[in-house]
Design a protein that fits this description.
Strand order of the largest sheet: 2-1-3-6-9
Distance between the termini: 27 Å
Radius of gyration: 20 Å
Helix content: 25-40%
Shape: globular
Number of helices: 11
Largest sheet: 5 strands, parallel
Number of strands: 13
Structural class: alpha/beta
Length: about 375
């Protein structure tokens, strides 16, 4: 079943590329919104003292639109967003949700369904073709406790043996629920984005922070910013964070492939997952699914982290994310990508890289 789903996804991607090349100049996305967390709200992307410590949505990688009538330039914040790159290519306006439906602190577990409903309402009233991006999972990993073992968590959906992080079954259940909502909107591309390999943060503990004094590790030790990972960046914490986020990424990839294989007018299969039965929704006409692994394999650098919290992307990081989501990611000697070797500590640090030419598509 999974093998067939992947085959359909590959064929669909190939057909999409053929259709685009046969109709140059035709804008294939008119309206954009996103289900996401603080990354998609541009939190602290300004990356300068005094720090905002708040959303700065005009910096966000997807829907920011600050370049005015000069379509092929970034705005004053120097983030050339996905939407702006589309406008540059096609010389016309793209409709974006303002504000978008992401929310700082959002988790797949507790927020995707509500965000999906908001996105559905917005997209249904705007021109097609449409894009609904899904970029969640970071807080399902990072909002847990400092201690690995806990006698009780606040919900049975949280793992008492893994820092009270979202259990994979609960993560998948809520992901499926949200997809059921989004796929009811016709002529919509549902672009599922793999989470960032957050465990790479521990490579940058020596970076200076701009919240006062000291480096990132000093800041992480003083303030709980993904504390289950960054409190001391021990090998155990890196391994646990990587293993958890990889489980989420694998779920996103496999379930997206499953939904991509559903024909127009067909229904999703009923699945008992996370203690609930989900599925049975109808796929609307012209609605497609794609998955991109770009952020998962992307090896980021210190300049792409906000010095305000050493966690969120800076303007440079937001711009890099926008570029890879629009143009895809070419792994090479000039742009080495994280390689999964099977060793969780090495892979959590992006300690081995892929330098052979390999391409990961984005959302376009």
């Amino acid at each position: 079943m999974k093998g067939r789903a992947y085959t359909v996804v590959i064929l669909a991607a190939a057909l999409f590329i053929i259709s685009v090349s046969s109709a140059p100049g035709q804008l294939t996305i008119r309206t954009i919104d996103v289900a996401g967390d603080s990354i998609s709200k541009g939190f602290n992307a300004g990356s300068a003292f005094p720090c905002a410590n708040a959303d700065q949505e005009n910096y966000n990688w997807l829907t920011s639109n600050t370049h005015g009538n000069f379509f092929c330039t970034a705005g004053s914040e120097n983030v050339f967003s996905f939407a702006e790159r589309l406008e540059c290519d096609f010389g016309t306006n793209v409709f974006t949700a303002n504000p978008n439906h992401a929310a700082s602190g959002a988790r797949m577990l507790s927020d995707f369904v509500n965000q999906a409903n908001g996105i559905k309402t917005f997209l249904a009233g705007e021109p097609a073709p449409r894009l609904a991006a899904v970029f969640l999972g970071h807080n399902d990993n990072c909002s847990g406790t400092l201690t690995k073992s806990n006698t009780s968590c606040s919900s049975p959906d949280l793992d008492p043996g893994n820092y009270c992080r979202t259990k994979p079954g609960a993560f998948e259940r809520e992901f499926r629920k949200g997809l059921e909502i989004l796929m009811s909107v016709p002529n919509t591309r549902i672009g599922v984005v793999a989470p960032v390999r957050v465990s790479q943060l521990c490579n940058f503990g020596a970076k200076s922070n701009c919240q006062g004094a000291g480096n990132c590790q000093f800041l992480w030790g003083s303030v709980s910013i993904c504390g289950s990972l960054t409190r001391d960046c021990s090998s155990t914490r890196i391994i646990d964070a990587y293993t958890t986020v990889k489980a989420y990424r694998d779920i996103l990839m496999q379930v997206t492939a499953e939904y991509a294989a559903i024909p127009e007018g067909g229904n999703s299969r009923l699945v008992l997952i996370g203690g609930e039965m989900v599925g049975g929704a109808t796929k609307a006409q012209g609605t497609t699914f794609l998955f991109t692994d770009g952020p998962w394999v992307y090896k980021f650098n210190a300049d792409q982290l906000s010095c305000c919290d050493c966690f969120h992307p800076s303007a440079t990081g937001q711009d890099a994310l926008a570029k890879l989501m629009k143009n895809g990611l070419d792994c090479s000697r000039l742009q080495p990508c994280c390689k999964d070797t099977g060793d969780a500590l090495t892979d959590g640090k992006c300690g081995r890289t892929e330098t052979k030419r390999f391409y990961y598509r984005g959302l376009f």
